[in-house]
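Notes, Module 5: Reading structure tokens.

Key idea: the token line is not a picture. It is a compressed description, and you learn to read it the same way you learned to read a sequence, by spotting repeated patterns. We will look at two proteins. The first is printed below with its tokens.
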Amino acid sequence: MNFRSKLKNDTLGFQIAPMIDIVFLLLCFFVTTQIFSQWETEVDITLPSSSTGNMEARLPGEIIINIRTDGTFVINQQEFDDAGLAGVLTRIVEMFPGQPVLVRADVETPYKHIIKVLDVCRMVDIWNVSFATTEKE
């Protein structure tokens, strides 16, 4: 008996199942890395410590305003002055009302620079403002 003549020598076509697996894994990888890249933190800012504060979960789309000791404001790795900060926050509030803002100021930052940020937030009608601190050691 010759069983080989009944078997067809079909060439394998494009396998869709492994391709879907690979694309799904790549999608999971890029979504995960994108979440971690959203933490807009400045390395040269030392946050003040607090004994009663707790680390809240970040809100989706939260704007992080970093205030350096010299009074420059940094949002998304871009430096702004007072007028530039007001312009950026105005455009954000027009598109997304109720936008949360996280203020990260250095320990050595003069209080007047923090008040400037709060004044600008009030002018553009941002009411959800929080301050970043670290835990007391």
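Here is the second protein, with the sequence above and the tokens below, as before.
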Amino acid sequence: MWEPEFDQRVTCRPHSVFIGAGLYLDATGQVPSNRMYDTYESEAKMRKVYDEILKFLILKKKNIKMFWNNAQDHQLAFLQNGCLIGQTWDGPIMSMKKEGKPVTFMAPKEGAMTWVDSMSIVKNAENLEQAYAFLNWSYTPEAGAIMAKSTGYNSVVKGVDDLLDEKTKQGFKDAYPGNALENLWWYPNEQPWFVPARTEYRDKFQAA
């Protein structure tokens, strides 16, 4: 992403790119951070590392053609706005690839940033029986396969693989080769100070 050949050819999300760049800088020994996990331990540690990441990103900002904020932006970046490479979610890219668009996704060697979406029920909800029935159905292999095939995102439910078509299976294999699944980077819990501080760095980067 940061090579000179990709001048004005990169897309990324303004705050997520700090993690990606930090993982790269840690892996290369330029800015040690214990795979960025130190930045979640205290605000002092976070700012020490983010100060260095911000310097790096400002130096490389000329490569960025477009910032994205949602799934629709992925399509705009690559199919209409001239981007050739970027830090993205896997789902939108995998869906576009399955539709025959000239794009692909692959987890970086530093580790793909990872989280698990979840569901909850508000305390004053009505129809609790139906709500629990929906939740229980959502975590069946059948529901997971529907989600994976229609969105491009992986399902965490065991048994989904057996229900996927070959094109979807191959797409996931291409996206997560070798030990990529063992090397995932899981988002830690965020303390109350984290998001305001991260927003501050994001704003500085965008304004630079």
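Summary for the second protein:
- Residues 43-60 form the longest helix (18 residues).
- The first strand starts at residue 10 and ends at 12.
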